[in-house]
Amino acid sequence: MNICVVGAGVVGLTTALELQREMRNANVTILSDRFEQDTCSDVAAGLFRPGTSFSGPTEEITRKWISDAYSHWDELRRTEHSARAGVCQMSGYIFSSRDPAIVRNHYIEKVLPVYRAATEQELTICPGEWKYGSFFTTILAECRLFQPWATERFLDNGGRIVTVALNNLQELRGKYDVVVNCTGLGAKRLCNDHKLVPIRGQVIKVRASWVKTAFYADFDTYVIPGFEGVTLGGCRNFDSYNTDVSRHDSAAIRERCESLLPSLKGAPVLRESVGLRPHRDPVRVELELLPTANGSVRVVHNYGHGGYGVTTAPGTAKHAVKLVKEALQTNSKL
Q: What residues contact 59, with CB distance under 8 A and at least 6 apart?
């Protein structure tokens, strides 16, 4: 059977690899017009920490996605591929002077190996009047390393990659038994999905090898070390399509991050990046029979992860592959 995955960001790649793992007789093809450093995933810091607003169709499904995703990343961390795939364990703090709810996370407090309240002494690690804090140990998956590794693995497994810009999913009818739509923000046009909203993010990558711990604080401030530099962020501009680096955002990010971690002052900039997070509530992972003039196309959607694509991709990929199997068992006349 022939299956295609549309989209080559972290969601598309993890879905394609899961298809190969679960359906060994299937021929899997990735179709995309953007790869690796041209994807939104490349901008992400990649720390496993889904936001408390992240939402699937039900609470139970959302929790399963997150639990499955963590297990996947943690298993990969324990293999010989971890360094090349950009996956490692990392600990961090989240501080707030505003609200104790900011430092809690009902999704991951029981999933991560460690998630506890910060001690009084720990609240003084960073400058600021911090009243609330948490310490946690989680996983980092750096997409600048993971995406090339995943692409190579996909090709080694017999997968095909085709560079193409699609006008609609209906044009794939008759070419594939099932189409898996992992187009992120592209689904806004391809599916005419008005629930999809871009949330603009901007980050600065700096060279600061002495930073080994992640830090989060109020006003979307974060410092996340990685394999290739330290990510300073950030911002969340709702419904913004601006992909240009803003010097005002850069100045604000540096000011907030250097206030949180003064040792960052003077850290050389490696690059500045902007990404448009594909936000949808709920994230869409569902089967659709898409009508065309000559029948239907079986489409499994897997998009709308917002800023939590790296975090949750392996979990939604498992769900999507289950739906692909169901789609192949349908007796619908196509």
A: none
The verdict on whether residue 46 carries a ligand-binding annotation is: yes
pLDDT for res 293: 86
For residue 113, the tally of other CB atoms under 10 A from its CB is 12
Which positions of the chain have pLDDT values less than 70?
331-334
Residue 119, marked binder = no
Q: Does the annotation flag 107 for ligand binding?
A: no
CATH superfamily of 2-330: NAD(P)-binding Rossmann-like Domain (3.40.50.720)
228: which 2 tokens? Answer: 């290739």
Please check if 310 is assigned to a binding site. Answer: yes
End-to-end CA distance of the chain: 15
- The DSSP code for 37 is G
Q: Quick one: pLDDT at residue 58?
A: 98
**8 Å CB contact between 7 and 138:** no
**What are the domain boundaries of the chain?**
2-330
Is 47 labeled as ligand-binding?
Answer: yes
The pLDDT of residue 330 is: 76
- Residue 166 known to bind ligand: no
Q: Is 207 annotated as a binding residue?
A: no
Residue length of the chain: 334
Residue 327 pLDDT: 95
DSSP states of 131-187? -EEEEEEEEEE-HHHHHHHHHHHHHHTT-EEEE---S-GGGGTTT-SEEEE--GGGH
Beta strands at 2-6 and 295-305: parallel, antiparallel or unpaired? unpaired
Helix axes 309-329, 59-77, angle to 10 degrees: 110
Which pLDDT score is estimated for 331? 54
Distances (CA, A) of 110 to 106, 114, 307: 8, 8, 21
267-284 per-position pLDDT tens digit? 999 999 999 999 999 999
56 is in an annotated binding site: no
Q: Is 45 a known ligand-binding residue?
A: yes
Q: Which of 257, 32, 246, 258 is nearest to 151 (CA)?
A: 32
**pLDDT digit string (tens) for 220-230?**
999 999 999 99
